[in-house]
Amino acid sequence: MDSIELILASAVRLAIPLAFAALGEWIAERAGTLNISLEGMMLGGAFTAVAGAHMTGSPSAGLAFGVAAGLLVAVVHATFSHRLSVNTYVVGLTLNVLVLGLTSFLIMRTESRQVDKLTIPLLSDIPVVGPALFDQRWPAYLLIGLVPAAFWLVHRSRWGLEARAAGENPGSADVSGIDVNKRRRQALMICGVLAGFGGAYLAVAEVGTFNQNMTAGRGYMVIAAVIFGGWLLRGTLAGVLVFGAADAMRLALPALGYELNPQFLIASPYLLALIAMTFFAKSHRGPAALGQPFVRGIT
Amino acid sequence: MPPSTEQSRPAGTAVNGTAVPSVELSHITKRFGSVLACDDVCLSVNPGEIHGLLGQNGAGKSTLMKILTGLVTPDHGEIHMAGSRVSVNDPLAAAGLGIAMVHQHFSLVGRMKVWENVTLGERGRVDRDQARRLVKEVGERYGLVVDPDAHVENLSTGERQRVELIKCLRRDPGLLILDEPTSVLTLAESRELFSVLRRATTDEHKTVILISHKLDEILHATDRVTIMRGGAVVARRDTAGTDVRELAREMVGRELSKWTAASAVGAMDALIVGEQTAAEGEVLLRLTDVHATARDGRPLLRGLSLQVRAGEILGIAGVEGNGQAALGDLLSSLLDVDSGTVEVCGSAVNAGKPGAMHRAGVGVVPEDRHGSGCVLDMSVAENLVLADLGEVASGMFVSPRKLRERAARLIDEFDISVPSPDTPMRLLSGGNQQKVVLARELAARPKVLVVAQPTRGLDVGAIEYMTERIYRAAQDGIAVLLISTELEEILTLAHRVAVIHRGAVVGEMKRADVDLERLGMMMGGQIA
């Protein structure tokens, strides 16, 4: 029983930074950007958060720094791919390499306190699910508000209607009087804020320090989760949980005495993502204009 | 066309020129690079009339209307509405002035619901209930019935056009522009559309501009007509005082041959003499109960069967999106069958294997000239040998000399106007690109020739050439499968007509037995 509780708690804990980023990626993809630079947004957010927390002495202020870094990456990405019409994948990959290089170069031996742990008495004592749900750092509980807010924004608001139109059929959206590239830039910036926060959460709230390339492909896992989830919000969150669980198994199995090849364990979440994509990605259709630049003109 | 639209025309309103024009475009000029799309164009439309704008592809009609709707900014010229000068810089400004346009390729988002599409482009909060109610209200007012909660991608093209009309009409525009609205509609749906337009002008006092290259439709639906050619206005007529021949002459600039008449100007009854007799050669292409699905699981072909004999042209008629593209892909080995067989010259072909169809002797002039017909950045000479490298290569090496010789021969034979065989494909006109594709396919000496939308977007000269070449190919004993959404084109060329609907052939008749009424209903899926 103990081990299930442990693994579950660790799965949720590991899924939380992914969930923030996944909300952002989901919004960006619905608006038509397959945002590769998510990895860079998270990594930049993680680094800046630790640096910020060190400077100000407040881990919470560090989170704000992380958000700013994610937003900065988003603004650069948006300007290149949705103003200057540069290939969005090239921009995204370049940004990822740039952020990885910059953060590795600027690594400072900073230590940052962890953000205060917010536990809910009684509830966190519930067996099995208690520690998983009610024993997290306080920023994690922002998700309770952010998930419905993201759903409302995409599926109920005027902005979301226009952003989805931009992702499905930019030509039609343009003819209807919608500024396609503006909507895409805005969606990308929302993604930057959320991904930056996710990265910052990982560094400040979970690990408490910054290591070189500490996101280690988590951004790509989130992109996989959105595809795995069939571009639906609930599917995306389920994908994030599955990948979080795989990550938790990796950490927990050796601790519980199972002997497995460590290389295989490290690779397992990524393998799982690959397998999941093979089976699920085909049965869903993404936004029709996903990843295609939009340039106005005569046709 | 229904006589009722003729009778309900408001006497006097259309023809008297004394009223202030509802919209007036003066001296509009627009240049795209070296192409003069609009050359000093003046157009004046009276309130309450249906005004036809007639011209071939590339005559400047669509550009002119894009200027009026704010999608394109003119280099020179002024726009006046109801006597006062206006500037239309973007689609929102046009909407503010009461100008609405139904685009040739619909401005709808397939994965969204009808009500979501209708509210797209408005401002303020999204109110689902109000939007649904409005869809119903506007629908009832104009006789456009559609379910507000249906997803647009599940609707037929006729229904989609209703949604498009509702989207325009709910803003209560004073001026409604329709760009080639019937190109995707069946005969019955076109009639329905024209009666809705007539209702909009007589009951609601709206003004309508109808862009078309089809004479039939201009004659039946409009009050006055302005004819454009090569970017300029060449004639203005009252519809009642003109006829098919005059309009055709003004539009094309010369008398028409047998080949152009129908395909180019869409006048079936007046100009075509049906003289085709079916040939009785052996069956060269036979498809039996073919089922195929798209990668995402959508069924594309559902039990399609057909056969084409040597020397025969079989026309596949149908509303766009009923499996024509899949049929073309299948015969180009781009799509595999789930079940059923494809036989060429009596032997079965493994359709999904790349190149199998070509090796079996099937030549294809594909629908999407730029996407799969040719490589735009390669030279004309290279494009001419793409299908048949063996003839110019020995082992691994391509001989540049043989390549150029062969290109020169084909350019001469097919009358392709091109500065040199090394010119990139991209620089050629649409007509010459299509000639290159056709030349390449015919040079491979196919047993079966598949031509999909062979004249789409071409000018009259090129249409004439293509039509004649296809006819001659059949005369030479090739089995020709002509896939087209232009009924006129099929009726000009085909010996037999098969109707495709929802991925299957639902009916077949000889050219001589064609009854347009019945054909239209088959295309709409009402009778099988």
UniProtKB/TrEMBL annotation, chain A:
Q: List the subcellular locations.
A: Cell membrane
How is the protein disposed in the membrane? Multi-pass membrane protein
Mention one GO molecular function.
Answer: transmembrane transporter activity
Keyword annotations from UniProtKB, A to Z: Cell membrane, Membrane, Transmembrane, Transmembrane helix
Originating species: Sinosporangium siamense
Protein's name in the database? ABC transporter permease
Q: Which residues cross the membrane?
A: 6-24, 36-55, 61-80, 87-108, 138-154, 187-208, 220-243, 264-281
Q: In which broad location class does this protein mainly occur, judging by the first location in its UniProt entry?
A: membrane
Q: Name one GO cellular component term.
A: plasma membrane
> Per its UniProt record, what InterPro entries does this chain match?
ABC_BtuC-like (IPR037294), ABC_transp_permease (IPR001851)
From TrEMBL, chain B:
PANTHER family with a match to the protein in the record: CARBOHYDRATE TRANSPORT ATP-BINDING PROTEIN MG119-RELATED, GUANOSINE IMPORT ATP-BINDING PROTEIN NUPO
Q: Which GO terms describe its molecular function?
A: ATP binding; ATP hydrolysis activity
Keyword annotations: ATP-binding, Nucleotide-binding
Return the PROSITE patterns for the record. Answer: ABC_TRANSPORTER_1, ABC_TRANSPORTER_2
Tell me the InterPro entries matching this sequence.
AAA+_ATPase, ABC_carbohydrate_import_ATPase, ABC_transporter-like_ATP-bd, ABC_transporter-like_CS, P-loop_NTPase
- Transmembrane segment boundaries: none
Do you know which Pfam families this protein is assigned to? ABC_tran
Enumerate the spans annotated as ABC transporter domain: 23-255, 285-527
What is this protein identified as? ABC transporter ATP-binding protein
